[in-house]
Design a protein that fits this description.
Elements: H1 11-26, H2 29-34, H3 41-59, H4 64-71, H5 75-83, H6 87-101, H7 116-136
Helix pairs in contact: 1-3, 1-6, 3-4, 3-6, 3-7, 4-5, 5-6
């Protein structure tokens, strides 16, 4: 079982939960399938990251307005993720429950040699996202 706070009380715990939610969600079969489509890849990863950040902050007791400000998204978008109305929000909420119940170890997949291809794909996605952020910023 992971040593993680599911109701974080500080920034470090929020970031730990956020990271686990993102990693746990990224390796779900439906997400891996979605990442095969290069046209939606950056949007999909961004949505998962926002949903993970929103849920981690919500579990820490932050109000939606503060979460929206920190993540640079609208309050309506944050509410959609938190309610599970968005696809990314639904997946991240499910991942939270799987992690909390001990049914998911997001690091188990990272220890498996067969995931090398997935790791390379994620690095490529990260690099593409960084390039896009540099271009937009």
């Amino acid at each position: 079982m992971l040593n993680i706070s599911f109701n974080p009380s500080g920034r470090q715990e929020i970031h730990q939960l956020e990271t686990l939610l993102l990693v746990g969600s990224l390796f779900r079969p439906e997400v891996l399938e979605s990442l095969k489509n290069p046209t939606d890849r950056l949007t999909w990863v961004d949505s998962l990251a926002v949903a993970a950040g929103a849920l981690a902050r919500s579990k820490a007791g932050m109000p939606v307005s503060q979460i929206a400000e920190e993540l640079g998204r609208s309050e309506a978008s944050i509410r959609e993720h938190l309610k599970g109305s968005s696809k990314a929000g639904k997946l991240v909420n499910e991942t939270y429950e799987l992690l909390k119940s001990g049914k998911l170890d997001p690091f188990a997949v990272l220890k498996d040699d067969r995931t090398l291809t997935i790791k390379k794909q994620l690095r490529k996605i990260r690099d593409e996202l960084n390039e896009l952020l540099e271009y937009v910023g």
